[in-house]
Specification:
two-stranded antiparallel ribbon; disordered C terminus; alpha/beta; 14 strands; about 325 residues; DNA-binding; LysR_subst-bd
């Protein structure tokens, strides 16, 4: 009989791209992972992986086995969720991955709420610039607070459900003493010196694509994904920043925030969970807390309702309570 733990190792190696990366994520040595994969190879009697440059790739037999492994682990999760649903109570542990820009206004309030409502629940929170949806099928985390920019395609993988939290527009951030009142046209920033995230990030790509669609190539002398650094440069009058509204403290001194009326740049914040037929009460509780925190945080921004009402590019899923695979 196949060892389910070795199947999990195979899935992790494929997801991470190499034995070394899988070992690091599992807190194992590369040698230990290699030994277990060798044992799995002996069990099935055929090679499952092959070298592919600096990474590894599945053989045909490996692809077949991985497909079955995905279904096996899916069945295990369904069994766990079915028992949890019968029990009807929130569990004792859950893993959450979230973007740094969401911690202050969504994650921290949600965790506070969960601690009050479900004191037995321990939440392990991974804060990362790239909250990877691929962690969900691996079981590394149970809920991901992710983002999708409206200028970029939806890359949500199969087997993942997304639960919309809110639209989060980017605001123009300048020094407080800079002239200008009211919403701006993105094209007005053609003469500004911008501080932007690297073009390899979702936000950086969205800003560049939006500027190009507005008819100009932005001047970007400052490149950093650190929002605190972006705000510091804007406060000093050295650059104009484009920062998601949720990531900005509306009471922060020394800066002026202005919405973009024409050619806006927006990201959709969502909570993602593994797709299951039987609902998981624990993941459901986390999503509910994130949704409530997002709703409350939105209310702290005086411009939130106005720009939502004049939304020129509504999300294809307008129901905030609806899910999509």
């Amino acid at each position: 009989m196949l060892d389910i733990r070795r199947l999990h190792l195979l899935r992790t190696v494929v997801a991470r791209g190499s034995i070394a990366a899988a070992a690091q994520s599992l807190n194992l040595s590369a040698g230990a992972v290699s030994q277990q994969l060798s044992a799995l190879r002996r069990e099935v009697g055929v090679d499952l992986l092959r070298p592919d440059g600096r990474t590894v790739a599945l053989t045909e037999a490996g692809r077949v086995l991985l497909g079955h492994a995905d279904r096996i682990f899916g069945a295990v999760r369904e069994a766990e969720n079915a028992v949890a649903a019968v029990r009807g109570t929130v569990g004792v542990a859950v893993g959450l991955a979230a973007l740094p820009s969401t911690v202050a206004r969504i994650v921290a309030p949600a965790l506070t709420s969960l601690a009050s409502l479900h004191p037995q629940l321990t939440v392990t929170c991974l804060v990362t610039d790239q909250a990877q949806l691929r962690e969900l099928p691996l079981g590394t985390v149970d809920v991901v607070l992710g983002q999708r920019y409206h200028h970029l395609p939806d890359t949500t993988p199969r087997g993942v459900d997304t639960h919309r939290l809110l639209d989060d527009p980017l605001l123009v951030v300048t020094a407080a003493d800079r002239a200008g009142e009211g919403p701006v046209d993105l094209r007005e920033l053609a003469t500004h010196r911008l501080v932007v995230p690297p073009p390899t990030t979702d936000c950086g790509q969205a800003i560049l694509r939006a500027c190009h669609q507005a008819g100009f190539t932005p001047s970007t002398p400052y490149v950093t994904a650190d929002i605190a650094a972006q705000l510091t440069l804007a406060r000093a009058g050295l650059a104009t920043a484009l920062v998601p509204r949720t990531a900005i403290d509306p009471t922060a001194p020394g800066i002026r925030t202005t919405p973009i009326e024409a050619h806006p740049i927006r990201r959709l914040l969502f909570a993602a969970t593994r797709h299951t037929d039987a609902p998981d009460p624990t993941a459901t509780a986390v999503v509910a807390a994130l949704r409530a925190a997002a709703r409350d945080g939105r209310a702290t921004h005086p411009d939130a309702d106005a720009d939502a009402d004049s939304d020129p590019d509504p999300d294809p899923d307008p129901d905030p309570d609806s899910d999509s695979a």
